[in-house]
Fold:
Amino acid sequence: MKNSKKNLTFGMVAGALMVAAQASAVTVTVDPSATWVGYMNVSELPQAGGGFLWGSGWGTGDLTAVFTGPNLKLGTNNINDPNGYWYQGGGMAGAQGNKWMDANMYVEPASAGLAGQTLTFTGVVTSNTLFGSTDSLGNGWTSKAFIKDFAPDFSSFNVTEISLTPGTFSISLALGADPARHFQYGFETIGSCVWATDADSKGYVNVTAVPEPASLLALGAGLLLVSKRRRSA
Structure:
């Protein structure tokens, strides 16, 4: 009887700790219905010193980052301005981009509901043909998922990030307890700008949400049914 009481007490404590842990953790994924924001940081090319020039809010489509249904397509940035500021020798097919583009597409949820919690960001990279492409100067493009925790005045931040390689990704960050901080999760694609007609040759990254558990169960049931049919055959 005493052992039963001890086991019951231990179970209650363990259950309470599990509930508390779940309450302090939030998981998000690649949701097209979320409020996605675009921001571009522009710098000189690495060959020109890489100095930061300016940054401003951009439309997500201008980054380039576009949802088609549940799928998010990330590509090299295209500037439709042939000015030499953007392209060496002027904009045209095959022109070398003259600026280094740091395109950020992210969600900034209300910090009051996240402060002090651990945020996990997950998704599935279905393909990445951008990796390995280079411009005429030998510069490549990178694309990664991130979670950032900014100071209230954006003067500093903590970050966790991961390169977008095919397969499932999952990153987590323990967020600051101050509700005045700014929390963001999303994607960052970096490299020289590309003339629009050259974009397809450089490749894209395609990302989507991690399937819901119900979808995984349905997929598993489907695979099991296929396996049974094969055995019957």
